[in-house]
Design brief:
Protein name: ATP-binding cassette domain-containing protein
Radius of gyration: 18 Å
Organism: Metabacillus mangrovi
Low-confidence stretches: none
Keywords: ATP-binding, Nucleotide-binding, Transport
Pfam families: ABC_tran
CATH architecture of one domain: 3-Layer(aba) Sandwich
Order of helices and strands: EEEHEEEHHHHEHEHEEHHH
Largest sheet: 6 strands, mixed
Distance between the termini: 36 Å
Oligomer: single chain
GO molecular function: ATP binding; ATP hydrolysis activity
CATH class of one domain: Alpha Beta
Number of helices: 10
CATH superfamily of one domain: P-loop containing nucleotide triphosphate hydrolases
Number of strands: 10
Length: 256
């Protein structure tokens, strides 16, 4: 039994006069603990797919299950991290990272202690009483990750979570997120436009073709790269070779 199963998923957006098909016939399975990335030209439906997997959008056709359970029954098992941190500006960092636990009625002394320990593990010790405006962009994204992980989700959805950060901060946060997800054995789906990020963080990469979005190709990341941290993966000889192969495929998809 696959951990996550996406079967024959298609989705169309309807208006009074038009029908726009964003996804068509998406089928794939993901094993527990895998890190999967989706790459593709603008308009290929990557974010639509992630929104469907999150249970926030019902597909026009097809099914999504986690451990054979409908996604509608598993929404509390899913964590969603976006490009923006969406921290509440009027709450302290402690108040922000405990929000998910409060919402799901899981806040107790044990869960609060675990969440604050994770905050420290993220390099954010001593910021509990600060407000989001007092932190850098990278620190706010780390706090957002702690908030997402606090409820112990089984599936992490990452929608370009590093794209608004400067390059150095982005590389550091890639390493940190990769380590945390591995340490906690989380299954993750990443939507990104960054080929290098996808190679450095993933076990497999799916390329989506546009108009409508379909799976065009799958790349299995070599074990030699998967065993490295994202930063060190970028230095491996196979990284450059794979980058060029994916670049070529994406270029062809855009021309089509």
């Amino acid at each position: 039994m696959a951990f996550l199963s996406i079967q024959h998923v298609s989705h169309s957006y309807f208006t009074k006069d038009t029908i726009a098909t964003a996804l068509e016939g998406i089928s794939l399975t993901v094993e527990e603990g895998e890190f999967i990335s989706f790459l593709g030209p603008s308009g290929c439906g990557k974010t639509t797919l992630l929104t469907i997997v999150a249970g926030l959008l019902k597909p026009t056709e097809g099914t999504v299950t986690i451990k054979d359970e409908p996604i509608s029954e598993m929404r509390k098992k899913i964590g969603y991290m976006l490009q923006q941190d969406f921290l509440f500006p009027w709450k302290t960092i402690k108040g922000n990272v405990l929000t998910g636990l409060k919402t799901q009625d899981k806040l107790n002394p044990h869960s609060e202690k675990s969440t604050l320990s994770l905050l420290e593990e993220m390099g954010l010790a001593g910021v509990e009483n600060k407000y989001p405006r007092q932190l850098s962009g990278g620190m706010r994204q780390r706090a957002a990750l702690v908030r997402t992980l606090s409820t112990d989700p089984e599936l992490m959805l990452l929608d370009e979570p590093f794209s608004a950060l400067d390059y150095q901060t982005k590389l550091k946060l890639e390493d940190l997120v990769h380590k945390i997800l591995q340490d906690y054995n989380k299954t993750a789906l990443l939507v990104t436009h960054d080929i290098g990020e996808a190679i450095a963080m993933s076990d497999r990469i799916f390329l989506l073709s546009p108009n409508p979005g379909k799976i065009a190709k799958m790349f299995l990341i070599p074990r030699e790269i998967r065993e490295l941290s994202p930063f060190n993966a970028r230095q491996h000889a196979l990284y450059t070779e794979l980058f060029q192969a994916i670049w070529k495929e994406l270029d062809q998809l855009e021309q089509e």
